[in-house]
Amino acid sequence: MFHAGGAGSALLLAGCAGTYSALDPAGPHAHTIAQLWWAMLLGAALLFVLVMGLFVLTLFRPGFGSGVSTKGWIVAGGLLLPIPVLVALTFYALVQGERLLPGGGDGVPAYRIEAHARQWQWEFRYLDEPGAPTTVDVLHIPAGLPVEVVATSEDVIHSFWVPRLGGKIDATPGHAARIRIHADRPGHFGGVCAEYCGTGHSRMRFRVEAHEQPEFRSLVERGFEQ
Asked: Less crowded by CB within 10 Å, the N or C end of the chain?
């Protein structure tokens, strides 16, 4: 049983890694989201343990809690127990969420890119590089710098998401939504459309390539020809 439990734990932990795992962050914005996830898991686990503890006491100690009225149990179990945990989690989520918005975080100017979605591909326009060609389904970014993504759509609602680099944002026709991503180091990272957008939704994926800044500058000058 011990070996089976160990194998099961290893399998579960393996699911926390990979190119599409938000629990394997490769930048500060994604790290913020991962921290929030673990905080929510901790809060949920705390509530679960408390409730299960009360349940076990009622099983093995007959008469436990009989001195508390029904109204008292409702107030204690339905208000006093969950509300402090939920309020703390909500406050933490709001504080962390502010760091993901344009202008949040350390105030470092961001490199601007437009992610234009259509069924079923992503077209990336480099707003800070006048004359630079667009790229399709491959986004090049400088490592070590915040990148502001302006998400737009040509047809239906799509959703831009690079799990290891930041949060997700909807790309809605007629509207420009902004979010920041950030890669700490060079590498390749998977991106997806996180909103069902039609029959080709499952193949609407893209790749983010983060480059050292001198290499990125050289790549821009070559028109993204590698």
From this structure: N
